[in-house]
Amino acid sequence: MVGGSVPVFDEIILSTALMNQVISFDTMAGILVCQAGCILEQLNQYVEERDFIMPLDLGAKGSCHIGGNVATNAGGLRFLRYGSLHGTVLGLEVVLADGLVLDCLTSLRKDNTGYDLKQLFIGSEGTLGVITAVSILCPRKPKAVNLAFLGCPGFAEVLKTFSTCKGMLGEILSAYEFMDNKCMQLVENHLRLSNPVKENPFYVLIETSGSNAGHDEEKLTNFLEQVMSSGLVTDGTVATDNTKIKMLWALRERITEALSRDGYVYKYDISLPMEKLYDIVLDIRSRLGQSAKSVVGYGHLGDGNLHLNVTANSYSSSLLKAIEPYVYEWTARHHGSISAEHGLGFKKKDFIGYSKTQEAILLMQQIKGTLDPKGILNPYKTLPSSSS
Ligand code: FAD
Ligand code: MLT
Ligand code: ZN
């Protein structure tokens, strides 16, 4: 997403793929301890067999490693319900730049003995240490999961549907994702997926996860009646069986893949106040006009996180100049973050100043200097080059 794992100059690549063992699973507390190279989907399968789920889920689940997830503080589709890895990761084992093994691999829910060092490595993109093992808290597997895929006539209706859904589905709400019609056209055209509802300017995916199927269904039915009768939603479909659930999720999860088949992709991952979330897509679309192929907006609306993506037939520096730094200035003006969940990597590191103060950046550089004085850990990434 941001070139965080891409070697650019003289790096040595380190693979953790063979570190793929589960170390322990506490079936009472739901605490999984595993090596960093375990694949997320396989971990989810492992804990599901024991009646739990992983607290995070994302489109890359089939290939990404838990160590990579922690290193990038990946957000994803369950963030709305289970929160950030800063909350669910209980412990880490990390190899530091000088070879010292830092054992913070505890499985305690509460431990206020001094600084919580593991937090430094969560989201540090491999620049402070190599994560070798993770202890993570897993929620119980929900007994009932429902997924609603709904069409909305405008972005105002997407927001009102969210607010209604928070009020009416409350404790069983586990995901609220949105995509615009342009995204739908891309998944239809490039991946041959089909739109299960009437064509609309926007679509939302609402997932509920609870412990009582009858109770959840009743709540969802009341909610759907409310949003359909008030015109917030014009068409929709609901899934409870696994096959249809997977089919509906694919429409949202595979947007990234459809975009990459559309051409060269300029990717932006922004946090913004919810009511401003789509304004930037409209603004960029009119600013770029015919010079862009597609300008799309989708993402984790429930977390105030927009994925703004622009495609073109090929890379063009003039198109890039029309997007950046405009998109970062726009975001900073609205007090947003220029990287909500993808980190800074190689591509965004020099723009950190749009979201962090000089004092904060300096302290980050001091921490990096202390932990990695020779600059050998994921060099050239995350922090700005000293000249900028
Ligand atoms: P890599 O890509 O290999 O590495 C990512 C970064 O972490 C690099 O900087 C690398 O140096 C560092 N790193 C990797 N392993 C370690 C380690 N053991 N110790 C220290 N540093 C390490 N992200 C979201 O937040 N939400 C989403 O919804 C989401 N959806 C995605 C959907 C798709 C289809 C794709 C391709 C990506 C998506 N992402 C999403 C990005 C995703 O978070 C990352 O791709 C993933 O978490 C990184 O894990 P990885 O194993 O692939 O790491
Ligand atoms: C997603 O939510 O699909 C991802 O973060 C990937 C992307 O932004 O393309
Ligand atoms: Zn995302």
Automatic annotation (TrEMBL):
Residues 1-141 form the FAD-binding PCMH-type domain. GO terms for molecular function: (R)-2-hydroxyglutarate dehydrogenase activity; FAD binding; zinc ion binding. Its cofactor is FAD. InterPro entries: FAD-bd_oxidored_4_C, FAD-bd_PCMH, FAD-bd_PCMH-like_sf, FAD-bd_PCMH_sub2, FAD-linked_Oxase-like_C, FAD-oxidored/transferase_4, Oxid_FAD_bind_N, Vanillyl_alc_oxidase_C-sub2. It catalyses: (R)-malate + A = oxaloacetate + AH2. It comes from the Eukaryota. Its EC number is 1.1.99.39. The keyword Phosphoprotein does not apply. GO terms for cellular component: mitochondrion. Pfam families: FAD-oxidase_C, FAD_binding_4. Belongs to the FAD-binding oxidoreductase/transferase type 4 family. This is D-2-hydroxyglutarate dehydrogenase, mitochondrial. It comes from Phascolarctos cinereus (Koala). The gene is D2HGDH.
